Amino acid sequence: MKKHIPFGLRLIVAIILLQTLRFKFTAHPDSVYIFSKVGLEPLGRIIIGILELIAGVLLLIPKTVWVGATLSLVIIGGAIIIHFTKLGIEINNDGGTLFATAIITFLLSAMILFIHKKDISFLCLS
């Protein structure tokens, strides 16, 4: 059971990251609106999408979980900061769903990184 929970957390974060790609890569109007509002349309939308794809895949590979979790924390941390500074909590009458998803993804990524901290070789945490 203990092995299944960390994998479940990884899977949830990977699914969240990967399912948003269709919005970014197809230039969905909501995605275009968000990235336009922060001055990153279209290049920022594509780059963030690629980074989210990489993070999602890395989370699913046992040896690279900590890298995926770290990348996810950086990306989603940036998204949370952008929500607070430029976008607001609610976007296009979504009731704050996008913001709540970012918070959940950030917290789960932090949990994953904590669980896998022993895998970060350069920290030498024995």
From TrEMBL:
Which sequence ranges are marked TM in the entry? 7-23, 43-61, 66-84, 96-115
Keyword annotations of the record: Membrane, Transmembrane, Transmembrane helix
Q: Which domain of life is it from?
A: Bacteria
Q: What is this protein called?
A: DoxX family protein
Q: What organism does this protein naturally occur in?
A: Seonamhaeicola sediminis
